[in-house]
Known about the structure:
By secondary structure, the protein is mostly helical. Helix content is 73%, strand content 3%. It has 14 helices and 4 strands.
Amino acid sequence: MSPTLGLRSWSPDTQIKKRVTLGLIIPGLGLTMVLLALCGYAAWNPLSRRYLDRVSFRLLIYTQVANLVYCVVWILGPGTLTADPGWQCGLLAFTTDTMLMFSAGMFFCMAINLPLVLAHNVNGQKMEKYYVLGTTLLCLICNIAPYASGHLGWDVIDDICWYRITNTGDWLPWLIGTQIVWIMLFAVGEVAAFLIIVGYLVVYELETRRFLYDTDSQLKNNTRSSAASHRPASTIRMFRNIILRVGLYPLVSCLIHLSTTVLILYLISHPELTKLNWRIDVTILALCAGRPLIYGLLAATDPSFIRALHALSHPEDESAMQSATQSRALWRSAQYLSTVIDMPPDEADHEHDAEFKKDVRTSIDVVCQL
């Protein structure tokens, strides 16, 4: 998507771009189709349905559907097999940009869902329709405007369906205002939500420990151990798996969107055609084409998805676990959250907090954010 203008003193191999993008987009398409098929079967099966009946996992499914459409349309037009300067080119570019923004918006909604549920007692199930409708409306507004104004179409520089790059530069404000700004805001919002969750977990665990310390008379004989357990460092260690899991999506989003934005802006400021710029251009296309594959791999490692598959492959274990969990009152709090993340048993460092950590392991659900 290089905005390279002017005379060309060096002619790159355009087939390399197609081979790179197809080599990334086709595996992403295959993985997304497999994931959606498995999720559909798991949601239909009564044994595994309860693991997937969660707000953030449904948002994750919406992103995978958007990525599926993104892959199909990408193969049909924007940069690979059948792209041509016809009227269909603008429609293909519109669909690709819309699906890209919708997917980024859904990951942002996944990120903010957990702070809203935990810190502000918002009902995530009621908010789900607002997540979807709000993101859809924003995506349509941001992409219908450039499409209707004729700024989406054949890119004569890269021979792809994207923005109509011209010497006047009137396309640049449209690109920044309708794509780059919003996608970067989504990524920054994911990071901010992640930091809020980390702070909430630290405060929550410290307050719980303080409550246990005040109510358990046995701790009076072990002041040093209690003081050590009140340190934020031990809290971070206790929730390290949760923090790492929640931070995966913001990390990936920032790496993909920030690097893509920086590279695009670099090419805009250096429009001359050089080998370095051409390689940067290929890198941008690779990041865009590899996005569904990367997010598909993250979705495949989602704890709720893994639990659902385990329930399907070990139905006898699932029946026994359902009988055990029905007797626990803390299960009521888990229905509002999303992706179950267990805490390893070896993290029960303090004898007096064993029961607390056991409750956390069975009731804490964490929204995954990409």
